[in-house]
Amino acid sequence: MRINAFTDVCLRVAMLLAAAPDGVLLTSRVIADGVDTPYSHVSKAIIRLRELQVVEVVRGRFGGVRISATGRETTVGWLMRRLDTRTDVADCETPHGDCPLSGGCGLRAALRRAREAFYYELDDTTISSLIPRRGSASVSLTLSTMTGNTP
């Protein structure tokens, strides 16, 4: 199963925010640099994650973004289901219209079941469980170069 680019960005943003020290607010620019993704893509991801109550946004001069308590315990399966906007895994259309087998073909249903099985396997994995423990070199080095706002 391949996830779409938007879901990938949202997951990376949530993970980065979960790895940030408690109380630190990161700006959208810092997050974009931290996940090596264009600012405009990260901004859209933050908006969607806020709608899903995975992150909290604090406005103002000393504002920024942080993971919410709900976001820390959000499962990857739940989040990916909400971020996946595709109705079908396979695009069963030709340039001339629908596939002539679409009426009797079982591929779409089989792929939907496979996608749900994929998400089901991620239902026990929370965002916070994806983050290495504090003090891990890879996360610490990344975050030490970031400047955040503390309340």
From TrEMBL:
GO CC aspect terms: cytosol
Keywords: DNA-binding
Stored Pfam families: Rrf2 (PF02082)
Residue ranges the record marks as coiled coil: none
Cofactor: [2Fe-2S] cluster
Keyword DNA-binding: yes
An MF annotation (GO) of this entry: DNA binding
Name of this protein: Transcriptional regulator
